[in-house]
Write a structure and sequence with these properties.
Layout lengths: L2 E2 L13 H11 L5 E2 H10 L6 H13 L3 E5 L5 E5 L6 E5 L5 E4 L2 H13 L10 E4 L2 H8 L1
Parallel strand pairs: 5-7
Antiparallel strand pairs: 1-3, 2-4, 3-4, 5-6
Helix pairs in contact: 1-2, 2-3
């Protein structure tokens, strides 16, 4: 899995629109990562007449601006969710999709060290830890 977002741009250069506000509102009201199609369906169920292409466009812009996180599932599908500000990583349940934001002090130090060692600058990184959450692990043992 790969991720983008998490760090907000200092100031978005994009014009706020009704559609972007609607996408942000639906993301704020759900837990976990959702696909553009799922978010589009939730918007339509809520009475918002926004096209699927508009949902995709707004999700991509919001991820690029650091307003939301996007990860790719093992199947390659992009899924999105509202996240806290600042750099962080995720624990993701491969069965139910439950996601927990975590800090990784050791990961940050390692990324700086290996980047410097190889002469890289302006480095960014992502870390996703995928496993089974407590609920899914317990269900599998029952």
């Amino acid at each position: 899995m790969t991720t983008t977002g998490g760090e907000r741009a200092a100031e978005s250069v994009r014009r706020p629109t009704r559609q972007r506000s609607a996408v942000a509102a639906v993301l704020a009201g759900i837990d976990g990562f959702r696909s553009a199609q799922e978010l589009h369906a939730l918007l339509r169920e809520g009475g918002d007449k926004v096209g699927l292409a508009t949902v995709y466009r707004n999700l991509q812009a919001m991820a690029a601006d650091g307003e939301i996180d996007m990860i790719r599932t093992d199947e390659g599908e992009a899924v999105y969710r509202a996240c806290s500000t600042g750099h962080h990583h995720h624990l993701v349940c491969r069965q139910c999709g439950r996601t927990v934001e975590v800090e990784g002090v050791a990961v940050e130090a390692w990324a700086r060290s290996v980047s410097t060692e190889h002469g890289f600058t302006d480095v960014d990184h992502t870390v996703e830890i995928v496993g089974l959450c407590t609920t899914c692990s317990s269900a599998g043992r029952s």
